[in-house]
Structure formats: C-alpha cells, structure tokens
Design goal:
The chain is α/β, with parallel strands linked by helices. It contains 7 helices and 11 strands. The model has no long low-confidence stretch (mean pLDDT 95). It binds manganese (II) ion.
Length: 244
C-alpha cells in the first residue's frame, strides 16, 4: 500500500454578512476553492474567521500552505487612506485575520496563494496600497467587474504574463484570457512584490514574492476555471507541489 502526503492547506472561511444570517451567523466559502485543491492533491481545511488571536496562531502552525480567497474590500486605514465613497463592504475582523496570516506566511516562507481580494490583502500586508474603485480612480480602465448575468467562468479580458517570473514558469508566457470580478486593484506595489501579469489597461493582475517557494497572487478567479481548464488548474497544482 502506498501513501501520498496530502499537504493541509487552510482556506479562510469568512462570516456571512448580517443580512444573510442576522440571527445566526455562519461561516461560508465557495466550494470551487475546495474542489481545485482536492484535484491538486491537497487536503483543504476551512478556517473559521478569527481575529489575530492565539487560536488563529495555533491553526496556522498546523498548516502546510495558505489560500487567501476572494471577498469584500480591505479597510483603507491599513494603507493610510480614508474611505472613498465607492469603497465596498469592509470586515474589520477578517482584515485582522488575513493580514496576520499573510505576514506570518511570508515571514516563515510558508506557501501562499492569494486570489482576488487575496492579492489585495497580500499587497496591503506588505505595505502597498489599493485603488478603492477602478472606475472612479483609473480613467480609461477596462471593465473588471462581472457583467450582469455572466457565469463565474466568463472570460472578460486578456492579461499579459511577465517573462522570467514564477507565474510564467507555471502558465507559460503567452497572454491569457481571464475571468474578472473586482472593482479594486493594486495601486502602489508593496516592497518585496514583483508584478507577474497585467491587463492591457495597466491594472496589475498578478504578483509574486521573489525568493519564496510559492507566494503568488492573482486578481482573477482560477478556481472557477480550473474544473475545465488545465492551465488554470496548474496554479493549484504548483501551489500544492510547493507545500511540503
Ligand atoms: Mn481584471
């Protein structure tokens, strides 16, 4: 009988907003993250939303890798700005949890895959800032929010992958079409991050931490493509491979 090591990868599982479960709050997460990690040969572990706290630290210590999923907006206080009128919903407790997890993972060299909100958390955790609303703050930008009625896998725009990056090693350096469901994006890039892909309007669509085994953020949603798209699945496969 052979056994294969299945790395445990934590997936942040945030609280539902009050309108969804006002009298009995739940933690919820999209099944597509779990499915992509299982296909990659990992053991996903859904992490309840805890602030930066001893229980969070105890769970973190048991993880081989960390996946930061999509979600609402990071409080601009974390990058020294006041709230723009187009900034969306903020969850202070989630910010605290994810900023702590991200800094621990980068410090420890623990593999990290940051998706959509995750790439924004990664940038803010390391000292960068965000456009609080692309349409309001980046004249001439493409439409990066989800078109009404479009499925989660709808390919919305192209991204150019930067040569000689870890992302290019995984995906190849040819341009690719991605789904897009974000109204915020990286403004000032944090120290220690390198741009790995950008859209034709100059919006940063992927970053990586140079010198880490796997610390990649993408602004699109590969989990919604990976079931039918081997290239998108490779992001999860490479992430899993780096978790030892
Ligand atoms: Mn986009």
């Amino acid at each position: 009988m052979t056994s294969k090591y299945l790395p445990t990868i934590g997936v942040v599982c945030p609280s539902t907003d009050a309108s969804q479960a006002a009298d009995s709050p739940h933690y919820t997460q999209k099944q597509a993250y779990v499915a992509a990690l299982v296909r990659a040969g990992a053991a996903p572990l859904l992490l309840p939303q805890l602030a930066d706290s001893p229980p969070l630290r105890a769970i973190y210590a048991r993880l081989d890798g960390l996946l930061l999923p999509g979600g609402g907006d990071v409080d601009p206080v974390h990058y020294g700005e006041s709230i723009h009128e187009k900034c969306g919903s903020i969850d202070t407790e989630r910010d605290g949890m994810e900023l702590a997890l991200t800094r621990w993972a980068i410090e420890d060299g623990k593999p990290l895959f940051a998706i959509c909100r995750g790439i924004q958390v990664l940038n803010v955790a390391l000292g960068g800032s965000l456009y609080q609303d692309i349409q309001a703050q980046v004249p001439g930008a493409l439409e990066h929010t989800r078109a009404p009625g479009a499925p989660p896998s709808h390919l919305a725009h192209a991204v150019a992958v930067i040569e000689d990056t870890q992302l290019a090693e995984i995906l190849g350096a040819d341009p690719l079409q991605v789904n897009s469901r974000h109204h915020q994006a990286i403004k000032n890039l944090a120290p220690g991050l390198a741009v790995a892909a950008e859209a034709t309007d100059g919006i940063i669509e992927a970053v990586e931490v140079t010198g880490q085994p796997y610390a990649i953020g993408v602004q699109w949603h590969p989990e919604d493509l990976a079931g039918n798209d081997a290239q998108a699945q490779r992001l999860f496969d490479a992430f899993r491979q780096s978790c030892r």
